[in-house]
Design goal:
single chain, 275 residues, mainly beta, Metallo-beta-lactamase, Chain A, seven-stranded mixed sheet, 4 helices
Amino acid sequence: MRLAAFILALLPAAAASAQVQPGHCVALSAAPERIMPAALDDAPVPAGSLRIRFVGHATFLIETAGGVRIATDYAGFAGPGVTPDVVTMNRAHISHFTPDPDPAIGHVLRGWGAGPEDPADHHLEVGDVLIRNVTTDIRGWSGREADANSIFIFESAGLCLAHLGHLHHEPSDAQYARIGRVDVVMVPVDGGYTMEQAAMIRVMKRLKARLVLPMHWFGAANLRAFLAGMRDDFAVIEEPVPELVVSLDTLPRRPTVMVLAPLGGAMPRSLDPGD
């Protein structure tokens, strides 16, 4: 579904966004469809909103209305001249972490702990955002390593964002319960390095996020296959800019996949399965 057609179907804005309720992502949104793609912008984030920028690979830069900047699966780069306040990292591959994060970063949250008996356990409030994690397992050459990676959850402006990291398996019922409600999800769609696309699509349908942001493509063919598997239940928008502004009131009514361009990169071509 192209953005122009999507905009024609928009309804008037609803009431002002709900306030942050740290750790209580339980209310469902029934707001009108009004996602706001944006060109790169360093202006303050509007009250009750978040700005999400796709830096590339598995790194997104999330900026809150209070000015907190968070880089996900941080491997040393969060955009030109950007020093985040918080970074999250996973260690399945070197492209998802750095052993030498900038000492100017206030909070470095690793998705793994000191060992199997001491998994990562984050519950951090920074300004107007709460950041927590749900550990997941790594599939390695020597077998499955328990609690060695993390899904990170970000709660701000009444929204619940989940970054699935380098997810290697479908979450258990207990893990889904710990994740809670998800409004926006950042999902790896490569279909091999993480897990097969059919399984990842099942995760998307279980989470029922209103907005799905694909990452970790490894090529247009992988991304196209993921979109084809999502079209029955999700609207699909290809947006040629790397960032958007979203609030609780502007989440789409119908669950939607939005394909953002990586920062400084081109969109994959021929994403429409009919091309």
